[in-house]
Design a protein that fits this description.
The protein is an alpha+beta fold. It has helices spanning about 35-45, 80-90, 110-125, 145-155, 180-190; strands at about 5-10, 10-20, 20-30, 50-60, 65-70, 95-100, 130-135, 135-140, 160-165, 170-175. It is about 30% helix and about 35% strand. Helix 2 crosses helix 3 (about 110-125). The protein is elongated and about 75 Å long.
Length: about 200
């Protein structure tokens, strides 16, 4: 099972013009649905004079959480083409919203699909695709005598410590690469029975 996924490093834009209509695509890296909804709300406010703000996002492992929205465009002509581009690029934790200014000429179903797809592809082409690793938090509580052994495991496994407490008992919380989680958990369980 792979614990690697691809997302974008920072926000990016792309534009498509078709028969007077202007399609402005905005791609954002997002960590969850709330972040996606906040970007969409911001775009609706900033581009309040636009006819449509259509979008799609994929979030989580293998894009398990996804949504597409046509915002008044004919069903399947906006959100699905945007989502299709996210799938083609194999991206997750990404939102693409496309703001459309109507140019007075109807584009038809195929014209809309092509325009939303092209605008999305342009935004994604302008974004830097980055490889990320799925991580899981793991906490261990141990006696002071085991500190050097625990720290050796942290060093050998290249773990990222995200919290520590050295008061009455020693506790470390660290991010562990998903594919190494069980192995690291087994190693650390030898230091503590409170894992």
């Amino acid at each position: 099972m792979s614990d690697v996924y691809y997302t974008i490093e920072a926000a990016a834009e792309g534009i498509c013009k078709s028969k007077g209509s202007k399609f402005i695509a905005f791609a954002y890296p997002v960590s969850g649905e709330l972040a996606a909804q906040q970007h969409i709300a911001h775009l609706r406010k900033e581009y309040h004079d636009a006819r449509h703000v259509c979008y799609a996002y994929r979030i989580g492992k293998q894009g398990i959480v996804y949504r597409s929205f046509d915002d008044g465009e004919p069903s399947g002509t906006a959100g699905k083409p945007i989502l299709g581009q996210l799938l083609s690029a194999d991206l997750t934790n990404v939102l693409v919203a496309v703001v459309r200014y109507f140019g007075g000429v109807l584009l038809g179903t195929s014209g809309l699909i092509e325009a939303y797809k092209t605008a999305t592809a342009a935004a994604l082409a302008n974004a830097r695709k980055v490889e990320q690793i799925w991580m899981q938090p793991l906490s261990v509580t141990f006696a002071a005598a085991n500190m050097s052994k625990v720290m050796q495991i942290v060093k050998n496994e290249n773990l990222q410590i995200i919290a520590q407490n050295f008061e009455s008992r020693y506790t470390l919380t660290m991010n562990v690469r998903e594919s190494r989680f069980e192995h690291v958990q087994q190693q650390l369980s030898k230091m503590s029975d409170e894992l």
